[in-house]
Amino acid sequence: MKTTMLRMAWRNLWRHPQRTLLMTAIVAFGSCVILLMFGITDGFVGSMTASQVAENQGSFQVRAAGYADDPTPENGLSAEQVAAVRAALSGIRVAGIAPRVEAVGMLRSAYGTDGVNLRGIDPVAEASVTRIAELVTEGRYLAASGEILLPTALAEALDVRVGERVVVLASGGGRTTSRAFTAVGLFRSTVVEMERVAIAPIDDLRAMMGIGGATALAVGLSRGASANRVVAEARARLADRPDIEVAGYFDLNPLARVMISGSTIKLIPFVIMISLMAGFGVANTAFYSVLERTREFGVMTAVGMSRRMLAGVVLLESTLVGALGFAAGGGVGYAGLLYLGAVGIDFSAFMQGVGALGMPTVIYAATSGWYWVAAFSVVVFTAIVAAWYPARRANRLEPVTAIREG
User: Fold this and answer.
1) How many CA atoms within 13 Å lie on the side-chain side of 387?
2) How many CB atoms lie within 10 A of CB 309?
């Protein structure tokens, strides 16, 4: 019986190819759009997180308690606290621990002056936490005292080239100091925030700031380690040190949590809208299909076909259309995600002035088999629900009345 119904439904679909192709196109469009929305939304979150971790902040950071409220070098970690953190984190699955000194200063070249965020790093330790060395597009990475890395945008604004000298002015220890550095390399990051960061050896900035410790310790995780678990373990190991705090990703990027939750919430209305559009398209076409075949249905019930079977055939037609549409739209949508996952979407022209959000300039789409499941569930379920009323009407047809009306 089920095989007969399936064959009838399939044959009925291609008796009216234009109508079938219209319903299939509607479902395909909905499937494609839903897949792209899921992949791009998740890709935005993943790209933002990955870029911040790999190019800027590390997986998490350890700071002095209260530093976030007043981020000045004087409120950073002392040398004793740095040693205590290193001892506490020994044995945890970390790839490296990199001390940093960060401050706000001015950068002066022969052609101008501009504000800059100064970052002092240990070049060797930093390479185990972030990939800033790989972002150097001209010149080379830091190797000795008195050298500095500049972002390409800042270097262009001040007309600084590799090999030229710049003067850094910074405040620390209640005094303002200056020092000349040689620009040995220019780097380009996908994180907008990094366009205002100048990087120098940590000992040089320690001397300028008059401190011996660090404003933070950036920590990189070993491959496969869970950030949440390692952060929880680090907090447990440092629980007896109220003067030290462990800052996870969302602690370092408080706006990211709002953006991620907001993007997920805003996605729901779009999915509902696309589902309703696909549902109304299928329902409208299926309903008129039933109206056009009223006489045909009447004859079929008159010769012995049960009304329940007739309603089942109408539902099967909508199910087949939903499956065909999903296969076509899902294939196109997933191919689009694979392409955007490899090439990315460059938003650099629209990202000026939003560096504080820590957003990357290039967004890569995410791919997951769960997107297929979600899109299939939404679109095909909507198509079946939309066909319920036409199937119900077919189920209620009286043979004589249907033949007369037809």
Assistant:
1) 26
2) 18
Once rounded to an integer, what is the mean pLDDT over residues 274-288?
Answer: 66
Judge whether residue 355 has pLDDT over 50.
Answer: no
Which residue in 112, 183, 109, 111 sits closest to 146, CA to CA? Answer: 183
Ramachandran sector of residue 79 (left: φ over 0; alpha: ψ -120 to 50; beta: rest):
alpha
- Which sign, positive or negative, has the C-alpha torsion 128, 72, 159, 152? positive
pTM over 0.85: no
Amino acid making up residue 183: A
- Secondary structure, 3-state, the chain: CHHHHHHHHHHHHCCCHHHHHHHHHHHHHHHHHHHHHHHHHHHHHHHHHHHHHHHHHCCEEEEECCCCCCCCHHHCECHHHHHHHHHHHCCCCEEEEEEEEEEEEEEEECCEEEEEEEEEECHHHHCCCCCHHHHEEEECCCCCCCEEEEEHHHHHHHCCCCCCEEEEEEEECCEEEEEEEEEEEEECCCEHHHHHEEEEEHHHHHHHHCCCCECEEEEEECCCCCHHHHHHHHHHHCCCCCCEEEECHHHHCHHHHHHHHHHHHHHHHHHHHHHHHHHHHHHHHHHHHHHHCHHHHHHHHHCCCCHHHHHHHHHHHHHHHHHHHHHHHHHHHHHHHHHHHHHCEECHHHCCCCHHHCCECEECCCCCHHHHHHHHHHHHHHHHHHCHHHHHHHHCCCHHHHHHHC
Distances (CA, A) of 211 to 204, 217, 309: 11, 15, 83
φ/ψ of 283, rounded to 5, equals -65, -45
**CA 4 to CA 242: how far, in whole Å?**
74
Residue 11 in tokens: 């044959």
Q: CA of 32: how far to CAs of 77, 327, 340, in Å?
A: 51, 10, 14
Distance CA(189)–CA(313), nearest Å, equals 58
Confidence of residue 342 (pLDDT cuts 50, 70, 90): confident
For the cut 50, the answer to whether the pLDDT of residue 180 exceeds it is: yes
